[in-house]
Amino acid sequence: MSSGAITANDNTVSDPRHRASLVTGQQDYASITDTVCGIAEKEKTPLAWYVAFAVSSSVTGILFLLIGYLFITGVGVWGNNAPVFWGWPIVNFVFWVGIGHAGTLISAILFLFRQQWRTSINRFAEAMTIFAVACAGIFPGIHVGRVWCVYWLAPYPNQMEMWPNFRSPLLWDVFAVSTYATVSALFWYFGMIPDLATLRDRAKNKWRRLAYGTFALGWRGSARQWHRYERAYLLLAALATPLVLSVHSVVSFDFAVAQVPGWHTTIFPPYFVAGAIFSGFAMVVTLMVPARAFFGLKDLVTMRHLENMNKIILATSCIVGYAYATEFFIAWYSGSQYELFAFLNRALGPYKWAYWTMVFCNVVVPHLFWFKKCRTTPWIMMIVAILVNVGMWFERFVIIVTSLSRDFLPSSWGEFVPTPIDVAMFLGSFGLFFTLFLLFCRYLPMVAMAEVKAAVSHDIEGHGHH
Amino acid sequence: MSDHDQQNTTSSTETRVAAVLGQFESAGALKTAAEKVRDEGYRKWDSHSPFPIHGMERAMGIRPTILPWLVFGAGVTGAIVAMLLQWWTNAVDYPFLISGKPYFSVPANIPIAFELIILFSALTAFGGALVLNQLPQFRHPVFESEAFRRATSDGFFISIEAADSRFNEQKTVAFLESIGAKVDVCRVAAQKPAIPKAIPWAIVFLVTLAFLPPLGVAWYRASTKRLPRIHPLHDMAFQPKYKAQAENDLFADHRSMRPPVAGTIAQGQLMLDTKFFQGKDDDGNYVTELPLPVDRGLMMRGRERFNIYCAPCHGLSGGMPEGLGEGGDPKDWDGMVTIRASARALTGDGTWTPPRVLHGKYVQDQPDGKLFETITAGVNNQGIQTMPGYDKQIPVKDRWAIILYLRALGRSQNASEADVPETERAAPAN
Description:
The complex is a heterodimer. Chain A contains 16 helices and no strands. Chain A is mostly helical. In chain A, helix 2 packs across helix 15, helix 5 packs across helix 6 and helix 10 crosses helix 11. The longest helix of chain A is centred in the middle third of the chain and has 34 residues. The two termini of chain A are 17 Å apart. The model of chain A has no long low-confidence stretch (mean pLDDT 89). Chain B is of the alpha+beta class. In chain B, a hairpin with a 2-residue loop joins strand 5 and strand 6. Chain B is rod-shaped and about 145 Å long. The chains are: A mainly alpha, B alpha+beta. The interface between A and B is large, with 71 and 76 residues.
């Protein structure tokens, strides 16, 4: 149907005379549709998918069995004990909620900045966000001890005539994370409606047509619909942008508003947000590199996309490294002996192995991305991205465990020792994450087709029409 | 009968033209065509494309949507709701002081207000876009066209609906062809297809089912149960231990609460001083003297306790004076029970035992130890408890104080002129 086509093959070369092509290969509207829908429409599910799904769903099963065990037995199954009452569950919560920032960031902030390269990866990253937030939501939920009373967190009129304490950052956190989960799910689904309509219209059998058709809500792609749709999408992006910055700020208040040395610092909100973006982009790269190879999306999610994300990882790594240095400077400059002790203890105390793992993974390794070779070689970026995720998990471990284990009162000092249940639950959360992700890859449009088409319509149709 | 059947079949296959579709080559061609359709004066028409086309609003003459205003309103509502919620719950309905923070302070309430602004606005942006777009809408004439399936992949269409006042099948088709379209006519059933009968019944059935759980809960809450309530979650009220009063099969008597070993004496209850605690000496004889030092304080204490515990029956003076019982006015008598018993006795109903006169010879002649025993255990007259024991109400020392006061009453109520000091005596009346 098109009057032209894109034929670029390498779009990583920066030539100021031409704008680099967003996609590569011989592309027109129909080929974009075929490439993306072809994955969800494949008659036979690939064996590798079954194997991966079997593994991840079994691990998810273990997670839920362990949650059941926790409910029956109590929080003593974890290593949480005086003085470290926030152990792995909260480490895992902050870890996952941080990862869950990249999706909305790519979708909303890059959208507002008119960064059209986002269109190839935003759906994928948004899905990752939602699954990461789902994993994140589990941990504080089961961490409350009497989990059957978790609804007490909500302000609802009750027979006890009590209300939650709105002056507590823990309640701000409840509102921030639940709002974030709601808005990112809405944003993801809303962006997917036109693509679900595409799947509906290509459906070969009645059941697929019914399933996709139900969620496509009868979308007709009419200009009047597009007009309101685009306006709503812009508004959602504009709302999600401050939201994504607020969520990790509020998470950081959980620590910064407390008086524990090592937590009580004003740098936490920006430092947490930068760390969240850092870990989120690393997770997108970790997932995207194998997914684009496995599902044949290399021409839509091009090397240039990966390179751009790697540049953002490098930038945020520098911010995070700067924040680590600032923490030490402020600890010294504050003149507070407790503050100074807390930070020296981090770097030189019993948890120094965790601290230096964090510094190596988060501050040293990402500097490989100064080299174009590293930014454009899939296996190198995979390794760097995985190490960044390891480092970011250790960052939360260092913040939570080192600060709590050396409280104001030396008589209650103690070391934190995780139990096997702690470890298995953390691994189980990866199982849940990958299970949801595999289902998404198999049944939903992984790339925002309508957005990619709009972004490349100039190139496909040539400039004569405008 | 057959006529009727035939009519039904024809009407169900009868179709009418609901819209015509014109297909165009590219997004650019669609935009040019849209301008022409707009200029032709059609109103109920639309263009369809797999992605939003830049500049199409202007080409079609679409006015800006009111959605941003709705979202703005929702954001303002979110802010107001959040502030009112936090102020009312934490400062008015359930104010509690924590960490010395004020009940209501704007800085502490900003995070929640921010989140609710975003939440309300986002829900409105999402819901508003669907409502304004009239979605979900699963039935539409354009879906009748097989070619239209490409509208979500690589097809560009203009649809003109039959409901438009300028619509005329031949003319509209000719017009669309004249602007370069490949035309398809969308036909829909003339009558709306009937909903299968099973669907309303299924809805009624499901709604009925949905009422069962709340009804069950309501019935359970309203009815009386002989068994303890069910605790699905045991919290800390239920722990693996035996509680007092519970049954315990480890012991022969099945009591989980064990009786103390024989001869056990609780702390502070040794009571070796028999004179003080029992009013008897070591040989079992009643003591005749108070086993504690006597002073004015003890006397005053005794009067106070007497007026509380003894006076209701025996009277403030210890009973009616000798001889008043016969023919006197009951109002002059002393002690409520004394008055009542005597009054009943006057009417021939002598079932109430009048209390002893405490300043009388019978009582005053008893040794102190005997009086102590009487206050402690009460009086049992041939199996009838005429006075209860006061050991539970009156501590030991207070019992002795009361006995001291009793002796004073005995003196004062039976006093002779000789008892009054000479200087205080008034001149004899006669």
